[in-house]
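Issue: ligand-bound run for heme C - logging full I/O for the record.

Environment: standard queue, default settings, no custom constraints.

Inputs:
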Amino acid sequence: MKHTLRAILVASGLIAPLYAQSIQSDNQADKVKIELGRKLFYDADLSINGTMSCATCHEQRRAFTDGNKVHPGALDDPGKRNVPALANVGSYKNLTWAHNHLSGLAEQSLMPIRGTDPIEMGMSTHEEEIGKRLSQNECYRKMFTIAFSEEKGSINLSTVSRALESFEKTFISNDSLYDQKIKSNQPLPTKESEAGKKLFFGAAKCNSCHSAPLFSDDDFHQVQPQTQAANPLMKDNGLSDVTGNLKDKNAFRTPSLRNAALTSPYWHDGRAKTLSEAIRKHDLKMNQTLSDRDIAKLIAFIDTLSDISFVNNPKYTKPSKECPY
Ligand code: HEC
Ligand code: HEC
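Outputs:
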């Protein structure tokens, strides 16, 4: 766990958190890449049978989660993990619940499209189909030509995934009540939430993993109860399934608590329905010894991390069918 001076200053409310800035580019190709990514994010043609888009599992109104424990794939393969929120996803080095060498959002997007563990959008062995399908649409042809002129507008998995990445990098959530009050140097509006904030950054030490400003340290931890019920459908050992290293067994990346009030159920397997259960389930002495009053305060604080302008931002909604070009 890293305690940089910045983190300490942010935690104590002395400086306002900084965020990756959204891409403010005047470059036409970059702008079109973002619009293209948005169109693709909502396009079910990226799935084998045309039934599933990224947004099927990542709904904006739930901070890009889906409200289910796990979500079955397009061919009804059972889901393996809970759908994570996508706020500030461009700021992470490690992506997904337990992976430490994905190169970025473009590579990550290929996992749902053509992954087989589990099968989500079902395009493995049908990869060239995506280019064929999208090329039939005149609007896509125009937009890919502007966005990827150096590749002559080629529509393939590589250009598709880079456009998705450009769109996802605009998912910036930094306007919650907590952010507003920090920026104006004011306390939170209720005694309960202010007490929760003190606990979170102080005695309860939540900030050591759920570190501000992301409310995740982007690192892996084992916080499983010893008596963990194995997922009956699939084995999931967390990070060790990727690294092969036993010491990573059951380690998962700390999930961000931004917008957590909107993203039930919780944990990598959706085992916790409520925030209170989610907090209690850590196999940490601290979390076990918190009183019900403490938990209520912490939840009042977590509620102030909901960013209503993020979940209502018209820039992330399903784009109209009309072609802007
Ligand atoms: C069937 C549901 C489903 C679909 C469809 C889906 N996702 Fe996901 N997404 C998930 C799940 C589950 C995870 C967590 C996977 C894991 O940890 O192994 C995830 C993880 C992610 C992450 C990592 C987030 C983080 O915080 O590290 C990103 C980014 C993402 N998805 C983007 C996309 C994009 C882009 C698409 C469309 C190409 C898409 N997803 C389609 C369920 C889905
Ligand atoms: C040692 C690091 C660590 C500490 C300390 C910690 N957490 Fe966590 N927390 C995690 C990890 C890792 C997960 C995900 C576990 C999993 O899914 O297997 C998690 C999950 C959660 C979740 C569920 C979020 C979601 O989207 O699924 C909540 C809520 C939460 N923690 C709140 C807290 C609070 C409040 C505290 C302080 C009392 C705290 N945590 C202390 C690492 C930590």
